[in-house]
Amino acid sequence: MNYNNKLGILILICVMLNNCGYSPIYSSKNIELSINSIEFEKNKLNNKIVKILKSLSNDNIDLKSDIKIETIKSKNVLSRSKTGNPEILELTIQLNIEINNDKYEIEQSQNYKNIENKFELNQQEDLIENNLIEKIISKLINNLIVS
């Protein structure tokens, strides 16, 4: 390897390590939410949302919020084949959240094709669920910032 190739690789590594000025969009510094308590039914969906909310909590704020969370997840068949097998499905997640008596209802859904392999279908549904939760949290944060 000659000197120019080594120099080029070194410059490329330095640029990659610099993160190009990355800073998180939703930082706890920008959100005026400090959590006192969260009331929720323990399930996979609520646990994911609570984990994200706790990470966004800003402990530097004196006013602590009491939060109640309820999520509803539904899976519907949108179309079937001629033989009656589901072809297109819809996954919907609805978040009902109450923060200090302010109520928010946020719903997101996504359509996807059915897969014969049930393991792959479950993997796909988990990815869709995570994407929907991210969209819901993003909308919630926008509501909290505007409020």
What's a quick, concise take on this entry?
The chain has 147 residues and is of the alpha+beta class. It is built from three helices and four strands.
Describe this structure in words.
The chain has 147 residues and is α+β, with helices and mostly antiparallel strands. It has one domain (28-146): Lipoprotein like domain (Double Stranded RNA Binding Domain). The chain has helices spanning 3-17, 44-56, 118-146; strands spanning 35-40, 65-80, 86-99, 102-113. A 4-stranded mixed β-sheet has the order 1-2-3-4, with helices on one face. Strand 1 (35-40), helix 2 and strand 2 (65-80) form a beta-alpha-beta unit. The longest helix is centred in the last third of the chain and has 29 residues, at 118-146. The radius of gyration is 21 Å and the shape is flat. The model has no long low-confidence stretch (mean pLDDT 83).
Comma- or semicolon-separated keywords:
4 strands, 39% helix, alpha+beta, Double Stranded RNA Binding Domain, single chain
> What is the overall shape?
flat
Major sheet characteristics: 4 strands, mixed
Along the chain, the helix and strand elements come as HEHEEEH
Rg over CA atoms, rounded to whole Å, is: 21 Å
**Content-based structural category:** alpha+beta
CATH architectural grouping: 2-Layer Sandwich
Q: What is the end-to-end distance? A: 58 Å
Uncertain residue segments: none
Q: Tell me the CATH topology.
A: Double Stranded RNA Binding Domain
How many distinct beta strands? Answer: 4
Main-sheet strand order equals: 1-2-3-4
Mean pLDDT: 83
- What percentage of the residues does DSSP assign to strands (E)? 25-35%
Tell me the domain tally: 1
